[in-house]
Amino acid sequence: MPGVVAGALGAVLIDAYLLVTLVAIAHRTTLAGFYRFVAATAVGKNAAGDPNAVWLGVALHLVVSVAWGVGYAYAAARTPQLRARPITSGIVFGVVVMLAMQLVEVAANTYTLPDTYALANAFVAHTLFFGIPVAYVATQRLGRS
């Protein structure tokens, strides 16, 4: 259960951050476009014109985030060092998640080479708004070593 809570919180935080930075500030996409892109990793580029793909993207992002949270909590339950340093562990975890998700985009043929803004934004999103919160919540729910 710690991983589910941690992953769900991480999903909300990273989505909020990305929607503010990519939609509201940089105007690089729309709310629907953001979630259609997520859906495209599962159903292909046809998601771009499918209104139902928005809901698929929302659900997919939540499920994947919870899965990452469960995975982190599983590792943290067995590795006291992860629980002892949740901030450091969260940053490293966020980088691992970011790189893994880039590979998913490559495999799904939705990857585009990021510019400096996109790369920096993805790094901040995955470390500060996903990795650290997931590590912190999992650690709090599991108990420190």
Compose a concise summary of this entry.
The protein is mainly α.
Describe the structure.
This protein is mainly α and about 140 residues long. It has one domain (about 1-140). The chain is built from 6 helices and no strands. The protein has helices spanning about 1-25, 30-45, 55-80, 80-85, 85-105, 115-140. The chain starts with a helix and ends with a helix. The mean pLDDT is about 95.
**Radius of gyration over all CA atoms, rounded:** 15 Å
- Number of continuous helical runs: 6
| Helical fraction | over 70%
Q: Note the run of SSEs as H and E.
A: HHHHHH
Number of strands: 0
For this structure, the quaternary state is: single chain
The tally of structural domains comes to 1
Question: SS-based structural class?
Answer: mainly alpha
Percent strand equals under 5%
Give the rounded overall mean pLDDT. Answer: 95
Largest beta-sheet details: none
Assign an overall shape: globular
Uncertain spans: none
Distance between the termini: 18 Å
